[in-house]
Every structure is written in structure tokens, then in C-alpha cells.
Design a protein that fits this description.
Distance between the termini: 48 Å
Helix content: over 70%
Order of helices and strands: HHHHHHHHHHHHHHHHHHHH
Strand content: under 5%
Number of helices: 20
Length: 337
RNA sequence: AUACGAUAACGAUUGU
């Protein structure tokens, strides 16, 4: 069982989910007696596959055989949260006999990821009231909640606590702070934090870029993108989306086209988020034919991609095209919202 | 001294 758990967990850590799933089947087929550690792995597996049914079955089995413990329950909470079943996550959490900082953090993070920032911050104060000490994972989740809720006051208090070393300050904490200030509209403070960080990674740079873009400072966003490349920081698809948005907000078709070339060179053009953003960008810059071409070449289109072209056409006065796209969207099986 | 739980950044629409 040790060997099976080790190999399954190893596959999961590398996101080889199907292989891990197959190994779990093999493990059962070999008649190996599973234990609670294996269940934790399998709950993770279900979470990664978003396989609610299998997860529920495993959960029922765990309950029936009384294989529960703090870690198993934590994994179950995390699983439900990952599948978007926040009330099931809460139910499991509420029934836990023991709690620790990790399961509290799991709930706090789950809430902030589902856009329940207020609940996340309530959970944090409950956790503190129960005498648990937050760590950097907890603070990260709380900062995200502050950003979502524009809770600048509390976010600033957390920042103060971080300066006073309430937890270790890693790239996650730094990025969360940069992002929190930016989402609260405090781009100056966001940049101040960014400048003082010792560790910055792709997410940190993307946060400051999207922060500038969101707050209407497209030029600055683009400058940071250039600096990022000069410093040879890895650029990923999230970075690209933010930069293209920056180009759109200030109507910079030439720079956007450069970025588009970069996208194609680095094989990122098949990504749906990037495609949709490019469609929006070209419409914004009144380059309808480019927008259309990007949309046509996208391997997958969802309601957001179609809305980008439809609203773009509407804005450009291309009413009949807008209606044709609506029809094309429905014919492709995408439902309008 | 061998296996298990939690963390950050991205897209459309909401009239100037």
C-alpha cells in the first residue's frame, strides 16, 4: 500500500491524472488493502478530475468504514470546494471533530476562490477566535478575499501584520499583496510593494501588469511587460492576456500586433482566453477583419469569445454581422447568456 | 530516513 500510494501521489503531483486513475484501479484489482492515506490521494485525484460522482462514492465509503481523520476530512473539504460544491464543503467542515490551521485555511481559500470574500474573512476571524495561528497560506487566501471585496482597510492591516512577520513572506504573499492593492484601486501602493519585493515571479509580474491595465494605465502595463521580458522572466498565457488588454484599453493596435506575433511564435494562439481577448482587442481598435480572422482560427470558442465579436460589431455599427455571429454561435451549440 | 491535506496573477456584456 505504501508503494501504490507513493506512485499514485507522484503521478498526481505531475498532473498525470489519467495514469494515476488507472493505477488506482490496478491497486484495487490487486486486492491491496487501502487505507486512509490512499483515500486522501484518491480524493485529490477526484478533485483534479472534477469527478464529483467518484468523490462522493469515496466519501461515502470513508464515512461507512469510519476512516475519517483530520487529514482525510480536510481532503474531502478541499475536494468539494474544488468541484464548486461549497455547501458540501461547509457541511463536511462543520462536522469535523478536530480542526487545525490547514483545514481552516482550506475553507477560507475555498470561499475566496468562489467569490465569497465576505465569508472568507468571517472564517478567518472565527479561526483566530478559536486560537489558531494563520500561516502564509491563510494570509494568502485572506488577501485574495480582500481584493475581491475591495476591503482595503483589512487588506492594509494584513499587510502590516506581514511586515511584522506574522507569517513568512514568499512569492505567493508578495503577489497577493500586489494584487490586493491593485484590485482595491491602489495602484501606487501596489507598485510600492512590487518594488520592495525580494522575490518576484511570473505571477507577480502579471499581477502588476493586469493591475495597471485594469486601472486604466495601459502604457505602464506595457512598460512593465517590456521590462519583464528584458529581465528574462518567463511570460505565460495569463501575462499575455493582461498585456493584450492593456493594448486594448489605450487603443494601441501596433503594439498589440507585436504581441500577437509573439503569441503565434510561442504557440499560444490556440488558447481560448488569449483568442477571446485578441478578438476584443481588435474590435476595440476598430480592426474588424483581424478580429474576425482570429475568431475563425480559434479551435474552441465559448460564449465569451462570441460575445467579444458580437459586442465588438455592435460597437462598430456592424449590426447585421453581429446578428450573423449570434446565429453562428447558436449553430455551433453555444448558448447565449 | 520510504506514501497523505490547504495558498497568488488572465478573457466578453452591464450605453457617453
Amino acid at each position: 500500500i505504501v508503494t501504490w500510494t507513493a506512485i499514485i501521489d507522484g503521478y498526481l503531483k505531475f498532473n498525470l491524472v489519467d495514469e494515476a486513475f488507472k493505477l488506482f484501479h490496478d491497486c484495487i484489482k490487486h486486492g491491496v488493502q487501502v487505507n486512509s492515506r490512499m483515500f486522501v490521494c484518491v480524493m485529490n485525484l477526484c478533485g483534479k478530475r472534477l469527478d464529483l460522482e467518484l468523490g462522493k462514492q469515496i466519501h461515502a465509503y470513508v464515512l461507512k468504514r469510519n476512516w475519517r481523520n483530520l487529514i482525510v476530512d480536510s481532503a474531502v473539504v478541499h475536494f468539494y470546494a474544488k468541484c464548486g460544491k461549497i455547501s458540501s464543503a461547509f457541511r463536511t467542515f462543520d462536522r469535523m471533530a478536530d480542526r487545525d490551521v490547514i483545514c481552516w485555511t482550506t475553507m477560507i481559500t475555498a470561499c475566496s476562490q468562489q467569490g465569497l470574500g465576505h465569508e472568507a474573512l468571517l472564517m478567518l476571524s472565527q479561526m483566530l477566535g478559536d486560537g489558531f495561528f494563520p500561516n502564509e497560506y491563510t494570509i494568502c487566501g485572506a488577501l485574495k478575499a480582500c481584493g475581491e471585496n475591495k476591503a482595503l482597510k483589512f487588506g492594509t492591516q494584513l499587510h502590516g501584520a506581514i511586515v511584522k512577520k506574522i507569517c513568512k513572506s514568499d512569492a505567493f504573499i508578495g503577489t497577493s499583496l500586489v494584487d490586493m492593492y491593485a484590485k482595491c484601486g491602489e495602484i501606487v501602493n501596489s507598485k510600492k510593494v512590487f518594488d520592495r519585493l525580494r522575490i518576484r515571479n511570473t505571477a507577480t509580474w502579471t499581477s502588476i501588469i493586469s493591475g495597471y491595465a485594469r486601472n486604466g494605465f495601459g502604457e505602464e502595463a506595457i512598460n512593465f511587460f517590456r521590462l519583464m521580458k528584458r529581465k528574462k522572466v518567463h511570460v505565460n498565457k495569463l501575462t499575455i492576456v493582461s498585456v493584450v488588454m492593456a493594448c486594448g484599453t489605450i487603443n494601441a493596435p501596433l503594439i498589440g500586433r507585436e504581441v500577437h506575433a509573439h503569441i503565434i511564435k510561442s504557440f499560444m494562439h490556440t488558447n481560448m482566453y488569449i483568442g477571446s481577448t485578441l478578438v476584443w482587442f481588435y474590435c476595440k481598435c476598430k480592426e474588424y477583419s483581424h478580429a474576425f480572422k482570429v475568431l475563425q482560427l480559434m479551435p474552441l470558442r465559448d460564449v465569451v469569445s462570441w460575445t467579444a465579436i458580437i459586442s465588438g460589431c455592435a460597437r462598430l455599427g456592424l449590426e447585421s454581422e453581429a446578428l450573423e455571429f449570434l446565429q453562428g454561435m447558436v449553430e455551433e451549440g453555444v448558448l447565449p447568456n
